[in-house]
Amino acid sequence: MNFTRRAGALRLTAMLAAGMAGSSGCETMADGAPPGATIIMAASAVVMPVNGDADITALVLKAGSSGAPAGPGGPATPSTSGPPVNDGTLVYFTTTLGRLEPGEARTVNGRAIVKLVGDGRSGTATIMAISGSATETLDLKVGVAGAGKIVVVANPQALPVGINFTTITARVEDAQGNGLLGIPVHFSSTSGTIQTTPVLTNAFGLAQTQFLTNTNATVVAAVGSAANQSATVNITVGNGVSGG
Q1: What is the pTM of this model?
Q2: 185 by DSSP, 3-state: which?
Q3: What are phi and psi of 183, to 5 degrees?
Q4: Contact call for residues 154 and 219 (beta carbons, < 8 A)
């Protein structure tokens, strides 16, 4: 008798678990965007520092007019998106680089927002937003991957005879000329001594170090292996320069 009751209880537990799982699945599907919806994605940064973060926004819109093909009456009419989906529509997010906090969000005025947090690696993060049958992706450059140009200067560039210091300043920019924060700049030289390397760029994209030399030297500042991700400056010693 006890064995029969236990078996019955086990069967009931299994049925309840299956029912709850099915119910949960239905709720998840119902929470997503309706059929025909579209997603538009945007990031709060053009390039994200390797240990920084950026807001990722997914704008979810209901289906609009489907448009019409070209015909005798005129050119094709493009399809259009409709109004924002209802508040509370669930959007899931994934990324190939870094982590998302949280991994899902519900819409307010059609927008679902999560935060992409860097994990110390450079590269291109491909973020995907999924809601119902609607999907969209966004690529965001992280760290060195976003560096479009580096320039380097020395102050002073010409030194008097003897052992002297000069300040080496490198600026790392994205493709639009904006300074990039948190990019490690590696300094090297053909002779002399680099005081500190690598150095992280500040909010203006600048990284500085001191260079000690008593001979002519070439100093290299680099953030990556691409041709546009390194620059040099020549330091001269003597040649008529006075020590004071």
Answers
A1: 0.69
A2: strand
A3: -95, 125
A4: yes
Task: Collapse the DSSP code of 123 into the 3-class scheme (helix H, G, I; strand E, B; otherwise coil) and give the result.
Answer: strand
Q: DSSP label at 107?
A: -
* Rounded Cα gap, residues 170 and 152, in angstroms: 4
CA 36 to chain centre: 29
Other C-beta atoms closer than 10 Å to the C-beta of 150 total 24
Q: 100 and 82 in contact (C-beta within 8 Å)? A: no
List the Cα angle 186/189/191 in 5-degree steps: 150
Spatial separation of the C-alpha atoms in residues 57 and 48, rounded to whole Å: 15
Level-2 CATH architecture, domain 147-237 = Sandwich (2.60)
**pLDDT computed for residue 172 by the predictor:** 94
d(CA 116, CA 41): 13
Give me the CATH topology for the region 33-144. Immunoglobulin-like (2.60.40)
Q: Is the pLDDT of residue 67 over 90?
A: no
